[in-house]
């Protein structure tokens, strides 16, 4: 073999070895990436399945969740078992519906606090209120015993405002947040000038649809904001003539007890229904 041919052959072998080395390195990198992707997907899938099961628990049934996120119950079962993974639009819709960041939903298991906040959002009942309501309660000043104040309660998504009226003007103005527990709704409100007001009520019966009215407990400063006061508050979706219906309002707003000594004061379901029926009779 002449020298030129020998050099050509050696160069060929050398180039092939380099090519093999490059291909081998490329394949190794691809396999590493594939393995990394598989591990990532496995973690994402496990977190998704865990969080999905928690959402099913919050909704009560698999059927309810499937309907809410717009998939069939059979497909949801496949999501839950890991046999299928949702499309990006379905995943985005789930996160948007429950107000969860998408990277949080797939990368981490939801904490107890996050699930509690989601549950509060699901059962807040704040969406059954519309616009504004009229409110009626006894005046807190001693000199105005038995006179009934009128106010306005306004809802703005998760915010609420409470204004006490004096004729056509606003006498006091409070605003704050809507808070929920399992069976109670509370409105924590304050005013720079007028102090703090707190309103508490049983969660309205969702079967009534949009809230018509009922009773709540009002905690309000009295006597120039110097003394705390607790009393009944009537909430109504229509304005009530205080002169014509004074006796009805007085009866609904008076705290009654068959006992001589009071250990506590509670609003009963019967009282709330009575108030509701009174307002309904005026519609």
From TrEMBL:
A Pfam short name: HTH_3
UniProt xrefs under InterPro entries: Cro/C1-type_HTH (IPR001387), Lambda_DNA-bd_dom_sf (IPR010982)
Coiled coil: none
Protein origin, superkingdom: Bacteria
SUPFAM superfamilies given in the database record: lambda repressor-like DNA-binding domains
Domain HTH cro/C1-type: 52-105
Protein name per Swiss-Prot or TrEMBL: Helix-turn-helix transcriptional regulator
Origin species: Clostridium yunnanense
